[in-house]
User: What shape does this take?
Amino acid sequence: MVDAPERSVSDADEEIMRATYRALREHGYADLTIKRIAAEYGKSTAAIHYHYETKDDLLAAFLEYILDRFVAAIHDVETTDPERRLDLLLDKLLVDAEDHYDLLVAMLEMRSQAPYKEAFGERFRRNDEYVRYLLRTVIDDGIAEGVFADADAERVASALMTIVDGARTRAAVLEDPTELAAARRVTDEYVTATLLADES
Amino acid sequence: MVDAPERSVSDADEEIMRATYRALREHGYADLTIKRIAAEYGKSTAAIHYHYETKDDLLAAFLEYILDRFVAAIHDVETTDPERRLDLLLDKLLVDAEDHYDLLVAMLEMRSQAPYKEAFGERFRRNDEYVRYLLRTVIDDGIAEGVFADADAERVASALMTIVDGARTRAAVLEDPTELAAARRVTDEYVTATLLADES
DNA sequence: AGCTTCTTACTAACCGATCAATCAATTCCG
DNA sequence: CGGAATTGATTGATCGGTTAGTAAGAAGCT
Assistant: This one.
């Protein structure tokens, strides 16, 4: 009953995910090897294989882990006021990414492998649908409350996500984090033009 | 004088570029090996190394080759009417990409390696600046001719490129080519709202 | 004692790159 | 003109290195 330390059964798993995270930021996805993950883990490569049969299994688990963290981060936007909530969501999607440039690059690498790794594609699509759902919902709420003009919430959400992904890709590829802040202003312009175009 | 065949000095180079292009579309950048390029080339791997010292050299040459083709394609937009020219440029950037999905994916892979391969980053930045110059110029021309409303051409061009890159990333990652056409409509909306907002 | 966890040592496959050797075409020279 | 020398292009074999994954047994915990 002395479960005080409460090192849960999958305690090692959590540490391996963290080690993978560090190795990924340090070496990038293309140069992410089991050896390097093991080095961060502080144990042998075989120890990794004890917990995860194949590298693919580990990577799939890691993608689950990292996207769950992302969802958790975006989930703590609790404001219900539609205009404020949309602002905060876009901040999470664009502004917060500035502090994690290495991760931004690595995630772009992983995303570029989606067409070749079905597990990746599936998980990225699911995440995409979740974000789209959040955006569509807040927009629809705003329309229902009358603070947003009548608009096609689905299309507006898609447009915003395209801008978000464009900014992330450009920030990573051009090694220019200011792309994110610039895109944040574009989303504001877009929101103002399409959702706040009141003819009062 | 009988230079009829005219197999130019760098004839082999051209064929290797084409072989690389085929191998890239077929296997993707991550799985692009000299062996696979040689297979497409129809000769041995050593034959590749005879023409290009290292794999990096070959890849740098290929990126030059493929981006030169892109520039050539975008260059044949000769219309001078600003509104029409902007439309055609955006068509080249978004609509035409639909026919080359495999290349779209591979180019995203290569772009994601820009932070690790300075030669890539440099070349991608140069290409980016060229596209930005084209867009800025056509917008400034339109403003000068009075067909576009007064606007910050640099910022509008950046916004359009963010949308373009977002659509390309999403089309590749989500394996959904319709993202491109959808983004094309967003650019139209954006152009209408920022450049054609005449209060006649 | 017995189960979980881990290490050491290993394999098989693949990678980019290098090597000497070969062949065909071209150039040089008497 | 014609043989000799040179050059460009290519092959097959191989090298050193790295990869993911495996096998067998030791350590440690309960």
Notes: Residues 86 and 174 of chain B are 27 Å apart (CA to CA). The interface with chain A takes residues 28, 30-31, 105, 108-109, 111-116, 121, 124-125, 128, 155, 158-159, 161-170, 172-175, 179, 182-183, 186, 189-190, 193-194 of chain B (CB under 8 Å). Residues 1-9 of chain B have pLDDT under 50 and may be disordered. Residues 33-35, 45-46, 49, 53-55 of chain B lie near DNA strand C (CB under 10 Å from a C1').
